[in-house]
Fold these 4 entries.
Entry 1:
Amino acid sequence: MKDFWLKKRIVSSDLAVLVLLALGRILLHVFTNSQYGFHRDELLAIDDSRFLAWGYVVYPPLTPFLARISLILFGPSLVGLRLFADVAQAAAMVLTGLMAREMGGGRFAQIVAALSAFVAPDSYASGTMFQYVSFDYLWWVLIAYFTVRLLRSDDARWWIAIGATVGLGALTKYTIAFFVAGILCGVLFTSARRFLRGPWFWGSVLLAALICLPNFLWEFHHNFISLDFLKHIHARDVGHGEAHFFLRDQFWVATNIITVPIWIGGLYFCLVAPGGKRYRMIAWMYLAPLLLFLLARGRQYYLAPAYPMLLAAGSAWGDQWVKTLSADRARLVRRRTYRALAVAAVLVGPVVLPIAPAGSSWWKFADKANGNFNEEFDWPEMAEAAAQIRDSLPAADRSHLGILTGDSGGTGAIAIFGARYGLPAAISGSDSDWLRGYGNPPPSTLIVIGFPKIIVGAFDSCEVAGHVTNRYGIENSAIGDYTTIWVCRNLREPWPEFWLQVHSFG
């Protein structure tokens, strides 16, 4: 009995260490996430959260739902919104450590696994913005954790947890289908085939399908418009060369270059090493999505959520080796490993954390490296400029005024920053905003933001009324060259025809 309680205390202490590391990560993001402003994708989620539904053009329903909860709890708070992403990444970090424990790793393995997941650039960056990729990452890691529990315990009831998490993943990001393909390959090509004979596997399939059903019905009702969106975005990304370096960036973006030996060791352990035979399914859960993303020409970060399970396996396997060393040699290995992980964190942090002074050389380097920081500027200035233009218009124009933005980031910016000026809700032909329409009755005078000059031909009159600018001189890539703000009157064609012409995927 004494040995039982001692063992229980040690396990609890290991978990406490992982939780403390996760809390430290959350605090790091809380204290650094307010440096700039809302990202365009965050404004999109905020915009969609005002119209809760079982589906949206860009993504399934879970991310806008969480944004709605954030608005209720914290109001339009940048740190409050991003806290959800912080917690998701911190939870994935703890789960990675717990996977290492399930695979036989001690405290050293658990800490190394958790920190290795943290310093991956994609995971590091996912704690700095509220995006669906942050939650998609968590679901992949949670599925992997449940799978490890399944394989270690041989308790088929874990399939229910797997099925429920797959359902949540499908309500977050459709690329979960690639991970499901990996799970199926793992079942079919390993001894996990035994689970096909029991009811729990098929029960998990049914549960996942039931969770996905409302979103499927929404897509069916809207002619599967998200498929059109995904085709458009994929063609755009391939055209921009985003998929050219998919394999290279698995070592540099999806994972940290310093932790590569750990996850490669984890893959070897699960796939080849005799001690990893129990976990062969984990190897397939990585290899199948890797091949599918490569064939489909996916972006480099799509596979990032698959690495924590390999980092856990590699850490646990390495821990077994360390335990065979002398005490002095083992201490040296542990010390050097922790130092390497600290270096990994220092290398990535200044690039992915929003801490560089805006517009500085450091900021320009960081923005070029991650491509996100520039889209966190211009939005308050956009709303302020629109309010000043609105106030300068005659009363007749203001009584039937609308604001037309180039994409849903702009409509979200007007919703968040325009409220203080009493601006009307903006409309847009982009994504789910296009489905919501142009209002009834439609406006006769429009403040037009984020469109090329060709838009003036659709109206009897258009005049330049201002520009979107910021005090740092930063160019927002979401707005691009379309910084001119127009005031346009009297649409020349019926609104339904015009609305078809401005329809776009952003």
Entry 2:
Amino acid sequence: MAVVRAAGWIDLWDELAISYARFQDVGLDADATDAAIWQLCQREQYVLVTSNRNEDDPDSLESTIRSQNTAESLPVLTIADSERLRYSREYVQQVAESLLAA
């Protein structure tokens, strides 16, 4: 989160009143189903940023979006390479720019 709060982005971050929440911040267990996560995000008006977008089972994120998405639903933003976020500052910067420019 430091990247998007850094110089160059802080004014936009503050102007848009963007906040960041983790599972424990919103009362979700780490093992919550994708369906429960998506439903909470829609209900509470959170844009979900994830690297998980599979259709492995009926509660998967992709299945949930396909069955419950409406024109009023908030988008889900998917990060292509979450592992790369751990070791590439350049990739982190690219992801932050993409998210804030969207």
Entry 3:
Amino acid sequence: MSDKAGLVDFARRLAGHGAELVSTGGTARVLREAGLDVRDVDELTRFPEMMDGRVKTLHPAVHAGLLARRNDPEDLAALEARGIGPIDMVVVNLYPFAEAVARPDADDQVATDNIDIGGPTMLRAAAKNFASVASVVDPADYGAVGDELDAGAGRLSHATRRRLAGKVFAATASYDAAIAGYMAGGAADDDTPARLRLDLPRAQSMRYGENPHQAAALYREGAGPWEVLHGKELSYNNLLDLSAALDLVAEFAAAPPTVAILKHTNPCGVATGESLVDAYAKAFATDTQSPFGGIVVVNRPLDIAAAEAIDAVFTELVVAPAFGDDVLEFLQRKANRRIVRYAPGAPSTALVLRSAAGGVLAQAPDLPLPALDEARADWRVATRRQPTDAEWADLDFAWRVAKHVKSNAIVYARAGATLGVGAGQMSRIDASEIAVAKSRKAGLDLAGSAVASDAFFPFTDGLLAAAGAGATACIQPGGSVRDDEVVAAADAAGGAMVFTGRRHFRH
């Protein structure tokens, strides 16, 4: 037992039903210190442990006792002829391989030392013979198993043994997948594993998926970097929105107070300000209609002034790294609101997965952008005119937001706030026209703004439309065969254009 939590109480309940306890090493010592009678496994096998304990349970006296079919006279005769007793239950949890290799000092020696051999072998043997043998791999099952033994005079039902066997095979499959993943060396930005193994427990069943006629569930290992403080469990669509919100706010982790308002995973307004309530007002001004029923995420602990501003519009999810007691009490007055606290931290470098074409697509994540000073080392000013300092700040802001808008994406921004967002259009000029139309509908002036495009302008029309709307600076990846024409158009308009050399499609 690598995890001895709850072990003594469970063993005491087993002993209370007349079970004879057999164990090894440290586990046997813990049980003896608790006053329980325990046989050492080498007494059972009549063979001493070898190789620092690497060989101790791999013995016919153990595995014949586990695998013997209780309804097969020949199996039982074989046990009797060799003086081997049947084993009715195996309680094992495995060496903590995943935790061991996650340590900063982990190397191949640490990894191989934490590959369990005897444990999985005993568990699989017991699970294979679940018709007669119980296999317990999860300490969370100790209570229920003990209760059933008490109620059933020391017996477990066939259904329970089968359920426990299923958990064993799931656990050993996950364990082997972790080892295989380590041996494969993991994935880097320009590399992917030769074989992708997924083994995740169902963490949450949902009423439905994107639509009521679609079944859905959340699968994940352990807790996520967020928790629901108030409201119903998050739905399928809520989780998609939350994921998009957390990705977006990560771009502004080191920024001044920042607020983003999202709807259907698209940002409809983002702004920084002197305070969260100031930032919220500027973000909301971008689009005063779309935020209804949307999600608001902030990069600072939420204060009461910002909470009251958010409360003025029905907001389904309010997401922040922390909430004051007065803020939480205030927001909880609306029962149909969900309040989520997230834990800021280093962005995950795990592969991003989605099902497609009958398989699973995997890619490295599009990580948050570096600070502007660092990013400018890789960017290139393509026009004759250099951006002003204010334009550089606006270009950086717009580029960060555009990265999280569904492609084709166009974002206009000025003074740390979005002015117009065009998302998910079939052509880039359509996205630009929608962004302009939305800004005009909101009564916002695009004069002196910066415009960001998630991919290159294939023609001059998109750039000319932006300049005509009032944009004086543009940021885009570059790479079109017509880049020279687009740059010439920007020069003719007296604008500044920056090529980043990297696009940010978001399909």
Entry 4:
Amino acid sequence: MNWREVHAIAAEAIKLIEVDLDLDAIVGEMSVADKQLIAISRALLQNAQLIIMDEPTTALTQREIEALFYVIRNLKEKGISILFVSHKLSEVQEIADNIMILRNGIKVADGVSDEFDLAKLAYFMTGREITESSFVYDPAGKSPISILTVKNLTLPGRFFNISFDLKQGEILGIAGLLGSGRTDLALALFGIKPAKSGEVSIEGQQVHIRNIQDAMRFKIGYVPEDRLTEGLFLKQSIGRNTIIRILDRAIGWLGLISPKKFKEQIAIWVKRLRIKTNDPGLPVASLSGGNQQRVVLGKWLASNPKVLILNGPTVGVDIGSKMELHELIKELARKGLGTLILSDDLPELMHTCNRILLMRNGRIVEEFTAGDITEQELNQKITESIA
């Protein structure tokens, strides 16, 4: 094997989508976005006349999406056809010449892209009108409690001097490019990558988060970016996944799990979260992306967290389920849950958050009130440091 040639071919593949990746890194240890970029680069090496891209932008930031679209347009000019499968309607509208819409395995509409606006696409995809209102933070005239306070939190090489307050019932968004430090911050708050210095307080009481067990003891929950590998036991049942955090509530008088209590708890949470299934005993892998995400959310909500960190809460979820999840998140906030959302989906941040922090190079550089900035302005702020 000529490893120098292998390295050269890989470097050329990565160059096609105009990103910089460590070619010697272990793929299993890379972020979801980097894994996606590698898969796309590999497909581009096949010299195929038809390339099928199934949700290629799921975990990509706006910068990587724009780079991918540049590649797609170049491939099109070379006579290569692209089948672009996506739930992201704005992207489909931007990149596609023709659109075909499927619902429940049936083609419900097709035509040239110009025939569809976003509302029409959403209607055909879901079979109903989709509307979404922005989140209004209303502390009911009282001085809201700071449920999470972070002061000068630092993890060298990842993030530096991070300070912010999260109020009870507030939804705080964090925006930033891949590598901005936002995911590392979330992992630090959940004890996966503990910070080296700084302070974290829950309801005014300083706490030390050295590991995941500490975070859970202080009532912090975390919904990961990749629910399939980090958030679910795919071969286990829907019910088991949903109540894994509260198995103690199903313990009988002999200290063993009571089948009756077990089923009761599952029924409660499947109903409360509106998980669409005929049998909670089925493997969680049998659910749609939206319902799988409800299960991951339910696992934490069942344990009554004070702070919930959501990393890409609707990645890979269709438009109908996305709106339902957004409404669920807002409903939880109105009941007093403090929520932190990390997302590349700018409309998601604009609709669900009352404040947005912008991270760049491991630091918080700006803060916005959602109603005072447009999606286009926020995107410009996020990408303005790119040369």
